[in-house]
Amino acid sequence: MKSSHDKICVTINRMGFMKTIKITLIIALALMLLSSTALAGGNSTARSVAMGGAYTALAKGSDAGKYNPANLGLSDYRQTGLEIIGVGADISNNSFSLGDYNDYSGALLTSEDKEYILGKIPSEGLKLSIDAEVTALSLSTGSYAFNITGVGIADVNMSRDIFELILNGNAFADTISVDGSYSDLVSYATAGLSYGMPVYSRGTRQLAVGATFKYIRGIAIEEVVEMTGMAATYATGFSGEGHLVAQTATGGKGYALDLGAALKLNDTYTIGACLKNFFSHITWNNETEEHGYDFSFDTMTVDNMEDDYIVSDDYSVPIDDFSSNLPSTLTVGFAKTSGKLLWAVDWQQGFHRNTGVSSKPLISTGAQYHIISLIPLRAGFTTGGNRNTTFSLGSGFNLSPVYLDYAFVTGSPFSGYASKGVNFAFSLGIHF
Question: In this structure, what CATH number is given to the domain that contains residue 51?
Fold first, then answer.
């Protein structure tokens, strides 16, 4: 005859999403909702996306305002032009590819399937990222550039324990934790004015510095500032508790400053460096609120599992204005800038984990080749940071004065089914 704790474990394993599991997953479900409603942020320059983002030492004209304003101080990098629209989006996760989704969505999972799925999730958990950017207007002339851009970024991380509970149920003397889970969302619009100036010139060698000042209009922010949760199985029943606090706002304003330097070694090679968001500050002052949820239960069993057995409380209250900063990153790039074949390498370093940024270095490489002058072919490779290892491809049409560029990103095995998300970019503009 089965003991009481055996009865509990078997019942939970069979019933799946019973009330106890729902309570244990409440924080994870909240995170998933955040990710599905978030605006996103990324790169709206299709040329850069196609080259893996390696663009710090290549960006000219209005693109220089986005990647390295110091390039505007180099004589060969100045352009008079108008970018009518640029759109880029990156929606990805760190575990599952399109092929995995097609194989297991709606399928009856075997024990081997469950083991495979759990094996795909890293020890730090399942990370979901949404990163997109829309450039509504970009202008450049001489040493100046002006960009109006909308950005939205969301990062969600869910503990691996949560998925082990979903797939395998609980076991006696087992503890499920959401430690390591987090969720951040921010969306905003910027109006940036960039200027680059030469500081040294000798022959073909030039050194320039530059800056971009950005006025920021905050659109929305939702940040989980406190989150704990666990559920454990004992011989006497289940015990668990959870706590979630999030701050939200629907408007704000602020500023940011980017600094850059560029060294043109000769007519063929250029080195560039850009410190993005060297200073930044956003004050959120519209509909600022704090939202909280707490629950607890003790020695709950199959027999007494009722709604009134679980003690829970949630609230939403107005709070004072609060502030946030955009993450600072340092990017250093080296590029071959002349001839039919151009190539570039970028190294990017975030200083701490923040929305859309990792403290791990990100390495990007890319190349562009002109078979004919009207149709460039581009490819890139990216690895490190908080991103999946990816290949990128792109092309376009340079029908002077009009240009159109496009790009898409795929998984490291160079197959759309290996891609762990969707990433594309499109740009349309005029060079005078």
Answer: 2.40.160
